[in-house]
Protein backbone atom coordinates (compact mmCIF):
# COMPACT_ATOMS: atom_id res chain seq x y z
CA UNK A 1 0.00 0.00 0.00
CA UNK A 2 1.39 3.39 -0.98
CA UNK A 3 2.11 6.13 1.54
CA UNK A 4 -0.60 8.35 0.06
CA UNK A 5 -3.14 5.61 0.74
CA UNK A 6 -1.87 5.34 4.30
CA UNK A 7 -2.43 9.10 4.74
CA UNK A 8 -5.96 8.77 3.42
CA UNK A 9 -6.72 5.85 5.70
CA UNK A 10 -5.18 7.75 8.63
CA UNK A 11 -7.92 10.35 8.34
CA UNK A 12 -10.76 7.83 8.41
CA UNK A 13 -10.36 6.75 12.08
CA UNK A 14 -10.66 10.44 13.01
CA UNK A 15 -14.22 10.26 11.56
CA UNK A 16 -13.50 12.45 8.52
CA UNK A 17 -15.57 10.27 6.19
CA UNK A 18 -15.80 12.95 3.55
CA UNK A 19 -14.26 16.38 3.19
CA UNK A 20 -16.03 19.24 1.49
CA UNK A 21 -13.90 21.07 -1.05
CA UNK A 22 -14.51 24.40 -2.71
CA UNK A 23 -12.42 25.69 -5.57
CA UNK A 24 -9.45 23.88 -7.08
CA UNK A 25 -5.70 23.87 -6.62
CA UNK A 26 -4.02 26.18 -9.12
CA UNK A 27 -1.47 24.55 -11.41
CA UNK A 28 1.96 24.38 -9.85
CA UNK A 29 3.36 26.43 -12.76
CA UNK A 30 1.06 29.32 -11.78
CA UNK A 31 1.27 29.15 -7.99
CA UNK A 32 4.34 27.27 -6.76
CA UNK A 33 3.66 28.29 -3.13
CA UNK A 34 0.57 27.41 -1.08
CA UNK A 35 -0.29 28.93 2.29
CA UNK A 36 -3.01 27.82 4.67
CA UNK A 37 -4.41 28.69 8.06
CA UNK A 38 -3.52 26.14 10.71
CA UNK A 39 -6.05 24.69 13.14
CA UNK A 40 -5.26 21.02 13.71
CA UNK A 41 -2.74 18.29 12.97
CA UNK A 42 -5.09 17.04 10.25
CA UNK A 43 -4.12 19.69 7.67
CA UNK A 44 -0.60 18.39 6.95
CA UNK A 45 -2.07 14.91 6.40
CA UNK A 46 -4.79 16.24 4.10
CA UNK A 47 -2.41 18.40 2.06
CA UNK A 48 0.06 15.56 1.74
CA UNK A 49 -2.65 13.41 0.19
CA UNK A 50 -4.15 16.24 -1.88
CA UNK A 51 -1.06 18.13 -3.15
CA UNK A 52 2.00 16.07 -2.21
CA UNK A 53 3.93 19.29 -1.44
CA UNK A 54 7.21 20.14 0.20
CA UNK A 55 6.34 21.53 3.62
CA UNK A 56 8.13 24.15 5.71
CA UNK A 57 8.01 23.23 9.40
CA UNK A 58 9.64 23.97 12.71
CA UNK A 59 12.42 21.58 13.71
CA UNK A 60 10.48 20.80 16.89
CA UNK A 61 7.69 19.16 14.86
CA UNK A 62 9.99 16.33 13.81
CA UNK A 63 9.57 14.65 17.21
CA UNK A 64 5.75 14.72 17.24
CA UNK A 65 4.43 11.14 16.96
CA UNK A 66 2.91 10.31 13.55
CA UNK A 67 2.81 13.98 12.51
CA UNK A 68 6.62 14.01 12.38
CA UNK A 69 6.56 11.00 10.09
CA UNK A 70 4.15 12.74 7.70
CA UNK A 71 6.26 15.90 7.69
CA UNK A 72 9.48 14.05 6.94
CA UNK A 73 7.80 12.33 4.00
CA UNK A 74 6.90 15.74 2.56
CA UNK A 75 10.57 16.60 1.84
CA UNK A 76 10.42 19.01 4.74
CA UNK A 77 12.33 22.29 4.87
CA UNK A 78 13.15 22.62 8.55
CA UNK A 79 13.49 26.02 10.20
CA UNK A 80 14.54 27.08 13.66
CA UNK A 81 12.31 30.06 14.33
CA UNK A 82 14.81 31.47 16.86
CA UNK A 83 17.81 31.37 14.51
CA UNK A 84 18.24 34.15 11.98
CA UNK A 85 20.60 32.04 9.88
CA UNK A 86 18.13 29.13 9.86
CA UNK A 87 15.30 31.41 8.76
CA UNK A 88 17.49 32.87 6.02
CA UNK A 89 18.48 29.40 4.78
CA UNK A 90 14.83 28.31 4.79
CA UNK A 91 13.84 31.29 2.63
CA UNK A 92 16.64 30.44 0.18
CA UNK A 93 15.42 26.85 -0.02
CA UNK A 94 11.81 27.98 -0.54
CA UNK A 95 12.93 30.23 -3.37
CA UNK A 96 15.05 27.48 -4.93
CA UNK A 97 12.24 24.94 -4.92
CA UNK A 98 9.55 27.40 -5.99
CA UNK A 99 11.63 28.50 -8.96
CA UNK A 100 11.90 25.05 -10.54
CA UNK A 101 8.95 23.01 -11.86
CA UNK A 102 10.65 19.71 -11.13
CA UNK A 103 10.05 20.30 -7.41
CA UNK A 104 6.61 19.95 -5.78
CA UNK A 105 4.69 22.93 -4.52
CA UNK A 106 5.92 24.46 -1.28
CA UNK A 107 3.37 24.49 1.57
CA UNK A 108 3.58 26.85 4.53
CA UNK A 109 1.39 27.64 7.51
CA UNK A 110 2.48 31.29 7.85
CA UNK A 111 0.83 31.84 11.25
CA UNK A 112 3.53 29.60 12.68
CA UNK A 113 1.18 27.90 15.14
CA UNK A 114 -2.36 26.60 15.43
CA UNK A 115 -5.36 28.79 16.29
CA UNK A 116 -9.06 28.14 16.89
CA UNK A 117 -9.97 29.32 13.39
CA UNK A 118 -11.88 32.36 14.63
CA UNK A 119 -8.83 34.57 14.33
CA UNK A 120 -6.06 34.94 11.79
CA UNK A 121 -2.85 35.98 13.49
CA UNK A 122 0.10 37.75 11.88
CA UNK A 123 2.01 35.95 9.15
CA UNK A 124 5.68 35.06 9.13
CA UNK A 125 7.26 36.34 5.91
CA UNK A 126 9.08 33.25 4.66
CA UNK A 127 6.46 32.47 2.02
CA UNK A 128 6.39 36.03 0.71
CA UNK A 129 10.04 37.08 0.53
CA UNK A 130 10.72 35.00 -2.65
CA UNK A 131 7.93 37.00 -4.40
CA UNK A 132 6.30 34.10 -6.27
CA UNK A 133 2.53 33.81 -6.83
CA UNK A 134 0.80 32.24 -3.84
CA UNK A 135 -2.45 30.30 -3.58
CA UNK A 136 -4.14 30.81 -0.22
CA UNK A 137 -6.19 27.93 1.18
CA UNK A 138 -8.54 28.13 4.13
CA UNK A 139 -9.60 25.23 6.32
CA UNK A 140 -12.66 25.08 8.55
CA UNK A 141 -13.88 22.48 11.03
CA UNK A 142 -17.62 23.07 11.57
CA UNK A 143 -18.70 21.49 14.83
CA UNK A 144 -21.47 21.41 17.41
CA UNK A 145 -20.05 19.50 20.38
CA UNK A 146 -16.30 19.17 19.94
CA UNK A 147 -13.89 21.92 18.86
CA UNK A 148 -11.20 20.16 16.83
CA UNK A 149 -8.64 22.97 17.05
CA UNK A 150 -5.30 21.98 18.54
CA UNK A 151 -4.99 24.55 21.30
CA UNK A 152 -4.70 24.01 25.04
CA UNK A 153 -5.01 20.23 24.76
CA UNK A 154 -2.54 17.40 24.31
CA UNK A 155 -2.25 15.65 20.97
CA UNK A 156 -3.29 12.36 22.57
CA UNK A 157 -6.46 13.81 24.03
CA UNK A 158 -7.31 15.59 20.79
CA UNK A 159 -6.91 12.40 18.78
CA UNK A 160 -8.96 10.38 21.29
CA UNK A 161 -11.83 12.85 21.09
CA UNK A 162 -11.70 12.75 17.28
CA UNK A 163 -11.67 8.95 17.25
CA UNK A 164 -14.76 8.82 19.47
CA UNK A 165 -16.80 11.25 17.37
CA UNK A 166 -19.35 9.62 15.04
CA UNK A 167 -18.47 12.17 12.37
CA UNK A 168 -16.15 15.17 12.12
CA UNK A 169 -16.58 17.89 9.52
CA UNK A 170 -13.81 19.49 7.52
CA UNK A 171 -14.04 22.07 4.77
CA UNK A 172 -11.21 23.15 2.47
CA UNK A 173 -11.50 26.17 0.18
CA UNK A 174 -8.93 27.08 -2.47
CA UNK A 175 -8.88 30.85 -2.95
CA UNK A 176 -7.76 32.79 -6.04
CA UNK A 177 -4.03 33.09 -6.52
CA UNK A 178 -2.43 36.22 -5.05
CA UNK A 179 0.28 37.63 -7.27
CA UNK A 180 3.19 39.80 -6.16
CA UNK A 181 2.74 43.39 -7.21
CA UNK A 182 4.48 44.79 -10.27
CA UNK A 183 5.34 47.73 -8.04
CA UNK A 184 8.95 47.13 -7.06
CA UNK A 185 8.40 49.07 -3.86
CA UNK A 186 6.00 46.47 -2.48
CA UNK A 187 7.83 44.47 0.15
CA UNK A 188 7.17 41.03 1.61
CA UNK A 189 5.18 42.52 4.49
CA UNK A 190 2.70 44.18 2.15
CA UNK A 191 2.42 40.98 0.07
CA UNK A 192 1.70 39.03 3.27
CA UNK A 193 -0.89 41.59 4.37
CA UNK A 194 -2.78 41.29 1.06
CA UNK A 195 -2.79 37.51 1.31
CA UNK A 196 -3.82 37.55 4.97
CA UNK A 197 -6.67 39.96 4.21
CA UNK A 198 -7.98 37.67 1.45
CA UNK A 199 -7.92 34.67 3.79
CA UNK A 200 -9.49 36.51 6.72
CA UNK A 201 -12.30 37.81 4.51
CA UNK A 202 -13.06 34.32 3.20
CA UNK A 203 -12.94 32.87 6.72
CA UNK A 204 -14.93 35.74 8.19
CA UNK A 205 -12.20 35.76 10.83
CA UNK A 206 -10.72 38.60 12.86
CA UNK A 207 -7.16 39.60 11.97
CA UNK A 208 -4.90 40.29 14.93
CA UNK A 209 -1.23 41.13 15.52
CA UNK A 210 -0.69 38.09 17.71
CA UNK A 211 2.22 35.82 16.79
CA UNK A 212 3.97 32.68 17.94
CA UNK A 213 5.62 34.80 20.64
CA UNK A 214 2.21 35.22 22.26
CA UNK A 215 1.92 31.45 22.53
CA UNK A 216 5.29 31.44 24.27
CA UNK A 217 4.02 34.06 26.73
CA UNK A 218 0.83 32.06 27.30
CA UNK A 219 2.78 28.87 27.94
CA UNK A 220 5.14 30.62 30.37
CA UNK A 221 2.25 32.14 32.31
CA UNK A 222 0.49 28.75 32.41
CA UNK A 223 3.70 27.06 33.53
CA UNK A 224 3.92 29.51 36.44
CA UNK A 225 0.27 28.78 37.36
CA UNK A 226 -1.13 32.21 36.58
CA UNK A 227 -4.93 32.29 36.84
CA UNK A 228 -5.61 34.22 33.64
CA UNK A 229 -2.65 33.24 31.49
CA UNK A 230 -4.17 34.60 28.28
CA UNK A 231 -4.10 38.13 29.70
CA UNK A 232 -0.32 38.15 29.25
CA UNK A 233 -0.49 37.95 25.44
CA UNK A 234 0.45 41.32 23.96
CA UNK A 235 0.21 40.96 20.14
CA UNK A 236 3.90 40.26 19.70
CA UNK A 237 3.92 41.05 15.97
CA UNK A 238 3.13 44.68 16.78
CA UNK A 239 5.55 44.78 19.72
CA UNK A 240 8.29 43.32 17.55
CA UNK A 241 7.72 45.79 14.73
CA UNK A 242 7.77 48.79 17.08
CA UNK A 243 10.64 47.84 19.39
CA UNK A 244 12.50 45.11 17.44
CA UNK A 245 12.30 42.88 20.49
CA UNK A 246 12.43 39.10 20.19
CA UNK A 247 9.94 36.64 21.61
CA UNK A 248 12.62 35.23 23.92
CA UNK A 249 13.30 38.71 25.32
CA UNK A 250 9.56 39.20 25.89
CA UNK A 251 9.37 35.89 27.79
CA UNK A 252 12.28 37.00 29.98
CA UNK A 253 10.46 40.23 30.78
CA UNK A 254 7.33 38.21 31.60
CA UNK A 255 9.29 36.09 34.08
CA UNK A 256 10.51 39.28 35.73
CA UNK A 257 6.98 40.72 35.85
CA UNK A 258 5.47 37.53 37.28
CA UNK A 259 8.06 37.60 40.07
CA UNK A 260 6.43 40.89 41.14
CA UNK A 261 3.39 38.99 42.45
CA UNK A 262 0.65 40.33 40.13
CA UNK A 263 -2.91 40.20 41.46
CA UNK A 264 -5.60 38.00 39.81
CA UNK A 265 -6.27 40.74 37.26
CA UNK A 266 -2.60 40.71 36.21
CA UNK A 267 -1.67 44.07 37.79
CA UNK A 268 1.36 44.92 39.95
CA UNK A 269 1.45 47.56 42.68
CA UNK A 270 4.32 49.94 43.39
CA UNK A 271 5.84 48.14 46.40
CA UNK A 272 5.93 44.74 44.66
CA UNK A 273 7.53 46.39 41.63
CA UNK A 274 10.22 48.08 43.75
CA UNK A 275 10.90 44.91 45.74
CA UNK A 276 11.94 42.95 42.63
CA UNK A 277 14.12 45.80 41.32
CA UNK A 278 15.66 46.16 44.82
CA UNK A 279 14.64 49.80 45.06
CA UNK A 280 13.00 51.77 47.84
CA UNK A 281 10.25 54.34 47.75
CA UNK A 282 11.76 57.67 46.75
CA UNK A 283 11.13 60.38 44.14
CA UNK A 284 13.21 58.56 41.51
CA UNK A 285 11.50 55.18 42.00
CA UNK A 286 8.12 56.91 41.93
CA UNK A 287 9.16 58.50 38.64
CA UNK A 288 10.22 55.15 37.18
CA UNK A 289 6.91 53.55 38.16
CA UNK A 290 4.99 56.56 36.85
CA UNK A 291 6.77 56.21 33.51
CA UNK A 292 5.24 52.71 33.21
CA UNK A 293 1.86 53.54 34.78
CA UNK A 294 0.54 55.57 31.86
CA UNK A 295 -3.03 55.31 33.16
CA UNK A 296 -1.95 56.72 36.55
CA UNK A 297 -4.10 54.25 38.50
CA UNK A 298 -1.38 53.02 40.86
CA UNK A 299 -0.76 49.67 39.17
CA UNK A 300 0.87 48.38 36.01
CA UNK A 301 0.09 45.57 33.57
CA UNK A 302 2.57 43.29 31.85
CA UNK A 303 1.96 45.04 28.54
CA UNK A 304 2.83 48.40 30.10
CA UNK A 305 5.94 46.93 31.75
CA UNK A 306 7.04 45.32 28.48
CA UNK A 307 6.48 48.46 26.43
CA UNK A 308 8.37 50.64 28.92
CA UNK A 309 11.29 48.21 29.26
CA UNK A 310 11.56 47.64 25.51
CA UNK A 311 11.30 51.37 24.80
CA UNK A 312 14.22 52.15 27.10
CA UNK A 313 16.34 49.21 25.95
CA UNK A 314 15.87 49.97 22.27
CA UNK A 315 16.72 53.67 22.46
CA UNK A 316 19.73 54.47 20.24
CA UNK A 317 22.06 55.41 23.09
CA UNK A 318 20.98 52.89 25.73
CA UNK A 319 23.98 50.59 25.39
CA UNK A 320 26.38 53.52 25.29
CA UNK A 321 24.79 54.75 28.51
CA UNK A 322 25.30 51.31 30.08
CA UNK A 323 28.97 51.33 29.13
CA UNK A 324 29.40 54.87 30.45
CA UNK A 325 27.64 53.99 33.72
CA UNK A 326 29.97 51.04 34.23
CA UNK A 327 32.99 53.26 33.57
CA UNK A 328 31.74 55.75 36.18
CA UNK A 329 31.34 52.93 38.73
CA UNK A 330 34.86 51.67 37.94
CA UNK A 331 37.03 54.80 38.30
CA UNK A 332 40.27 52.81 38.67
CA UNK A 333 39.56 50.95 35.44
CA UNK A 334 40.30 47.41 36.69
CA UNK A 335 37.17 45.99 35.03
CA UNK A 336 35.26 45.27 38.24
CA UNK A 337 32.92 47.17 40.56
CA UNK A 338 32.90 46.74 44.33
CA UNK A 339 29.85 47.24 46.51
CA UNK A 340 31.31 50.50 47.81
CA UNK A 341 31.91 51.81 44.29
CA UNK A 342 28.33 51.01 43.28
CA UNK A 343 27.08 52.80 46.41
CA UNK A 344 29.09 55.94 45.66
CA UNK A 345 27.78 56.06 42.08
CA UNK A 346 24.07 55.61 42.81
CA UNK A 347 23.78 57.52 46.08
CA UNK A 348 23.17 60.84 44.26
CA UNK A 349 20.05 59.26 42.75
CA UNK A 350 18.83 57.58 45.98
CA UNK A 351 20.54 59.40 48.88
CA UNK A 352 19.04 57.53 51.86
CA UNK A 353 19.85 53.93 50.93
CA UNK A 354 20.89 51.90 53.98
CA UNK A 355 23.54 49.17 54.06
CA UNK A 356 21.05 46.34 53.57
CA UNK A 357 19.48 48.04 50.56
CA UNK A 358 22.87 48.71 48.96
CA UNK A 359 23.84 45.07 49.49
CA UNK A 360 20.58 43.84 47.97
CA UNK A 361 20.99 45.99 44.89
CA UNK A 362 24.64 44.95 44.55
CA UNK A 363 23.66 41.26 44.59
CA UNK A 364 21.21 41.94 41.76
CA UNK A 365 24.13 43.13 39.62
CA UNK A 366 26.52 40.45 40.89
CA UNK A 367 24.85 37.64 38.93
CA UNK A 368 27.59 35.06 39.55
CA UNK A 369 27.84 35.85 43.27
CA UNK A 370 31.63 36.28 43.35
CA UNK A 371 31.50 39.51 45.36
CA UNK A 372 32.33 41.84 42.49
CA UNK A 373 30.52 43.05 39.38
CA UNK A 374 32.27 42.57 36.07
CA UNK A 375 31.35 44.46 32.92
CA UNK A 376 29.45 41.41 31.66
CA UNK A 377 27.54 41.15 34.96
CA UNK A 378 26.66 44.84 34.77
CA UNK A 379 25.47 44.80 31.15
CA UNK A 380 23.56 41.54 31.69
CA UNK A 381 21.69 43.03 34.66
CA UNK A 382 20.69 46.14 32.70
CA UNK A 383 19.62 43.99 29.75
CA UNK A 384 17.23 42.16 32.10
CA UNK A 385 16.29 45.34 33.98
CA UNK A 386 16.71 48.25 31.54
CA UNK A 387 14.67 50.59 33.74
CA UNK A 388 17.50 50.50 36.29
CA UNK A 389 19.61 52.72 34.03
CA UNK A 390 17.70 55.57 35.67
CA UNK A 391 19.57 55.12 38.98
CA UNK A 392 22.73 56.23 37.19
CA UNK A 393 21.09 59.33 35.72
CA UNK A 394 22.67 61.96 38.05
CA UNK A 395 26.14 60.58 37.31
CA UNK A 396 25.52 60.45 33.57
CA UNK A 397 24.06 63.94 33.49
CA UNK A 398 27.15 65.38 35.17
CA UNK A 399 29.65 63.49 33.03
CA UNK A 400 31.60 65.31 30.35
CA UNK A 401 29.89 63.63 27.44
CA UNK A 402 32.09 65.35 24.89
CA UNK A 403 34.60 62.61 25.67
CA UNK A 404 31.93 59.95 25.09
CA UNK A 405 31.34 60.58 21.38
CA UNK A 406 29.03 63.49 22.11
CA UNK A 407 26.36 61.20 23.56
CA UNK A 408 23.09 62.68 24.68
CA UNK A 409 22.17 61.19 28.09
CA UNK A 410 18.68 62.62 27.95
CA UNK A 411 17.93 60.15 25.15
CA UNK A 412 18.79 57.13 27.23
CA UNK A 413 17.61 57.94 30.74
Strands, helices and their partners?
Layout: H1 3-11, E1 20-22, E2 33-36, H2 42-51, E3 54-58, H3 67-73, E4 77-79, H4 84-98, E5 106-108, E6 119-120, E7 134-140, H5 155-163, E8 171-174, H6 188-203, E9 206-207, H7 212-223, H8 236-243, H9 247-258, E10 267-269, H10 270-276, H11 283-292, E11 299-301, H12 302-313, H13 318-329, E12 336-337, H14 339-346, H15 355-365, E13 373-374, H16 375-384, H17 393-397
Parallel strand pairs: 1-8, 2-5, 2-7, 3-4, 3-5, 6-9
Antiparallel strand pairs: 7-8, 10-11, 12-13
Helix pairs in contact: 1-2, 7-9, 9-12, 13-16
List keywords for this structure.
413 residues, alpha/beta, Recoverin, domain 1, 3 domains, 7-stranded mixed sheet, two-stranded parallel sheet, 10% strand
User: What string, H for helix and E for strand, traces the elements in order?
Assistant: HEEHEHEHEEEHEHEHHHEHHEHHEHHEHH
Unreliable runs: 1-13, 401-413
* Tally of strands: 13
Helical residue percent? 40-55%
Radius of gyration computed on alpha carbons: 26 Å
The main pleated sheet reads as: 7 strands, mixed
The oligomeric state is: single chain
Choose one word for the global shape.
elongated
Mean pLDDT: 86
The DSSP helix count reads: 17
User: What percentage of amino acids are in beta strands?
Assistant: 5-15%
Spatial sequence of strands, sheet with the most strands: 1-8-7-2-5-3-4
Helix and strand content put the structural class at alpha/beta
How far apart are the termini? 68 Å
* Structural domain count: 3
Amino acid sequence: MGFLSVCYLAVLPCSYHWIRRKGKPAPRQIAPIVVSNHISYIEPIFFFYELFPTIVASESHDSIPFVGTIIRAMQVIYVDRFSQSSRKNAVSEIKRKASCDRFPRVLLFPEGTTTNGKFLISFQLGAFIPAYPIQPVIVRYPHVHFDQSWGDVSLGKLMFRMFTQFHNFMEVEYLPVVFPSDNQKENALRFAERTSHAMASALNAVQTSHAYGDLMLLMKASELKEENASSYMVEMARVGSIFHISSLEAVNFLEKFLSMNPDPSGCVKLLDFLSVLRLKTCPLSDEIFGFIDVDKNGSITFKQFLYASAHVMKLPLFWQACELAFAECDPDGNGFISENQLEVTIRPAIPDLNKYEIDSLFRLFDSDGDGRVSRDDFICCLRKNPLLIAIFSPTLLHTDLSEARNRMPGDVI
